[in-house]
Amino acid sequence: MQDRDLVLGIDIGGTKTSCGFVDLTGSIFNATSMPTQAKESVDNFISRLNHQIEKIRADLPFSHCLCGIGIGAPNAHHYRGTIENAVNLNWGESVDLVSLIKRHYNLPVVITNDANAAAIGEMLFGNARGMKHFLVITLGTGLGCGIITDSRLLYGASGFAGELGHTVVDPDGRQCGCGKRGCLETYVSAAGLRRTAAALLAERRDPSPLRATSYYKMTAKQIFNLAVEGDPLALEAFDRTARILGMKLADAAAHLSPEAIFLAGGLASAGDLLLAPTRRYMNDFMFSAYRGTVNLLPSGLQTGVSAILGAAALIWHELKQL
Amino acid sequence: MQDRDLVLGIDIGGTKTSCGFVDLTGSIFNATSMPTQAKESVDNFISRLNHQIEKIRADLPFSHCLCGIGIGAPNAHHYRGTIENAVNLNWGESVDLVSLIKRHYNLPVVITNDANAAAIGEMLFGNARGMKHFLVITLGTGLGCGIITDSRLLYGASGFAGELGHTVVDPDGRQCGCGKRGCLETYVSAAGLRRTAAALLAERRDPSPLRATSYYKMTAKQIFNLAVEGDPLALEAFDRTARILGMKLADAAAHLSPEAIFLAGGLASAGDLLLAPTRRYMNDFMFSAYRGTVNLLPSGLQTGVSAILGAAALIWHELKQL
Lengths: 322, 322
Hints:
The structure is a homodimer.
Chain A lengths: L3 E9 L3 E7 L5 E8 L6 H17 L5 E9 L3 E2 L4 E3 L9 E2 L1 H8 L4 E4 L1 H12 L8 E6 L3 E7 L2 E2 L36 H14 L16 H9 L3 H25 L3 E5 L7 H14 L9 E4 L7 H16 L1
Parallel strand pairs in A: 1-4, 4-8, 9-12, 12-13
Antiparallel strand pairs in A: 1-2, 2-3, 5-6, 6-7, 9-10, 10-11
């Protein structure tokens, strides 16, 4: 029997690193994860990761050919193969991760940021199959964005295109971790939703269980659950989030004219509570020539393994172009 | 002696249609123009245009080979070869201009909108030579934008990407001709500058010759001249225009991560009165990872012939890829 062609997808997150083998149809084998330790050196991290990879590789129930490795990570620089200024990790200003991985695996290795990986994953294995122009918005602690134009990831001159999380909603608005004010991700993200809920506690008078929760303890999940139960404050927090997101997605469409925009990541699992009003607002703000032609859709990748699929799709996409 | 390779560049505007022959170095020969008549049928227009072309072609002082025709026009659809819903012309919903031109000239003919033509002109003959990622913003009656990523024009799914003029500055803001409110071009354009001056007449108390001019008679040129003379109202009008433009260009950079952004068109001839403060505001609003790396520059194409050069560059660019 022939060897099965596989790639390895690795997703490096601030708290957890996941990996698994993926074939060309998007089937995942032996996915696993290990903690990413903030204070660990990169050499230690790589050695632990290699150990993990060899372990799941030995457990594969069929003979295979490993064709390449794809990595998704925050602050990853595709052109340089590096991770730069990863604030949650003790890895210094720039780590040449691709070279470190290649020391152990003499294979094609590519890296990109997690939102770009999500976009390419959507194109190969998700709801963007057959599309040439689309965006994936990842809504987690922050707001990330991967842009596909003409079936290719858009990197731009810096290698960091698609920083929609730092477009301006209000020049005098909320403080952002980036040093600016009023960035989109201070409104539209899990953290942004919490800030909006806090602002509504001040603005409105509705009683709400949110008033009995400290800011530290408030979570997007709690606000979601309350909204589902009909809590007016929580519902209003989602509506405001949707309005700002819809407005900025219409702006993004005016730049890029995509066929569709996909919402992925933790906050996107709020489903139609976020998706339906965002779609309505996006169409309100849409330039007339595109109105009604840009679909707002949920990601087609299964939560939990979407990051591995994205990283794997990245290297499959690259290998197909060789 | 060998025939000289030339293309014909045609720029169709609402009031004037210009054309001229252009060689591969960007030298223009026998440029001319004729009025675009709002009530004329497209067949009449084409017949007048052909007559004009044959006249300037007969006058060329050297033997030549005409290699192709490039056309820049508002509402031009690159993929379809059409001009769609040209509001200032009596041409109906959609005119297949490329086919009409090809009836007379059995040559490669391409069409795109005027801002895209300006972008490709900048890349071949202007200040963007050698750049792979940049934007050209055309500031005339409205605000147009041509986007180059990876050395290619970005068209998107609709063929109409780069509608930055209709991104949202203020969802409750000024009425726009497109039916929305607060679009960028209602603030940043020749018409937008006049609206800002009118708003300042209400907000501020400074005496100014602008108070003696009717709204209809007020022009961007007049506001420019007054600003140069130090009129506080006119200066403030430019500063506000620059702030909004700078903010939205920082947003555009967050989408596309360009090497540079170029300002072209009538209002851009205000030079440093607009360019210098826009550059400052753009950097204030720029995402930290790009700050200082995105240049804001004037167009390198000579006013008056830039549209012909852009249309010619479009077809040269296409011919080089064949």
